Amino acid sequence: MAVRDVALKLLSHVYWHEKAEFMYDEDTYPCWTLFAVEEGRFFYGIGEQKGEAGFGDIVVCPPHIGFQRRTLEPLSFHFLQFVWLSEPSAEEAGMWSGKLAINDRERLASDYLYLKQLSGWDEESTLHKQHMLSDLLRLVIIGRDRKVGFPSESDDLMEKARQYLTDHAYGSLSMLDLAESLALTPVQFTRRFRKAFAQTPSQFLNEMRLTRVRHLLEGSALTLDAIAAKCGFENGFYLSRVFTQKIGMAPSVYRSMYHV
Predict the structure, then answer these.
(1) Do 181 and 60 belong to one domain?
(2) Quick check: helix, strand or coil at residue 42?
(3) Which residues pair with 13 in a beta bridge?
(4) What gap in Å lies between CA 257 and CA 236, rounded to an integer?
(5) Could you read off the pLDDT of 195-250 as tens digits, one per residue?
(6) Could you tell me if 57 and 37 are in contact, meaning their C-beta atoms sit under 8 angstroms apart?
(7) CB burial readout 10-25, b (16+ within 10 A) else e
């Protein structure tokens, strides 16, 4: 199988919302296993690879390899298992193993939303889910290609910025202060962040916040003002305006889709 071939067969898919902890600290699976994080962070260990993963990361474990994991905060994620239609070589398998970054956050959030909506296992739903999984892996490839030739210093600096945004996404946050802490002007910061991750810092931040908003609309009876306070928005009115613009429907309409 060529590294760029993402032909596969999906075996299972489970979505976990705000999982407090894993049942086992380590497990081994007979097939390829993928953890796709929507919200929260967790520690992982696969062989000699160890680290933390959050939104924008997928963690892939090959068959029969011990998968260590520990939640660092309540974790919402997609758990998918699959087999390649053509078994990869050892070198290719190594390129697909461990934490893989996806820079196109808007496309990633869209894939996650589709996966959640496809709850059945009829033939059509399964094919759609399989397409979403293939798309996740294709986004990894595209992200790798876009980073070819980027100065490592720039990547490191923007990764630091992305981590800061992830850690402080739901509180008071100043893009101006963040840019100054990186010794950049706001314009320089925006340009370098977009170059590294194919979106502006504000777009990245809004996607993280709107992901949490969607979860709270789906699973709670909180008012829009209360949700805004928990997700880093000034108030419910502003949240409603941003949500409607980005998601394509008002929060009340979105919430009604999940309440019977």
Answers:
(1) no
(2) strand
(3) 80
(4) 19
(5) 877 678 998 888 788 878 888 888 888 999 999 999 999 999 999 999 888 877 89
(6) yes
(7) bbebebeeeeeebeee
Residue 108 sits in the same domain as residue 192: no
Q: What's the 3-state SS for 161-212?
A: HHHHHHHCCCCCCCHHHHHHHCCCCHHHHHHHHHHHHCCCHHHHHHHHHHHH
| Residue 55 φ/ψ region, left for φ over 0, alpha for ψ in the -120 to 50 degree band, beta for the rest | beta
The answer for residues whose C-beta is within 8 angstroms of residue 75's C-beta and 6 or more apart is 16, 18, 19, 37, 39, 40, 41, 42
What letter would DSSP give residue 97?
Answer: S
Coil, strand or helix at 83: strand
Amino acid sitting at position 163:
Q
Residue 200: give the domain boundaries: 152-256
SS3 56: coil
Instruction: Indicate whether 249 belongs to any domain.
Output: yes
Give the pair of three-digit tokens for residue 209.
């916040």
Residues ≥6 apart with Cβ < 8 Å to 6: 134, 137, 138, 141
* pLDDT computed for residue 162 by the predictor: 85
Q: How far is CA 126 from the centre of its chain?
A: 21
Query: Is 3 inside any structural domain?
Result: no
CATH of the domain at 175: 1.10.10.60
Q: What is the pLDDT of residue 172?
A: 86
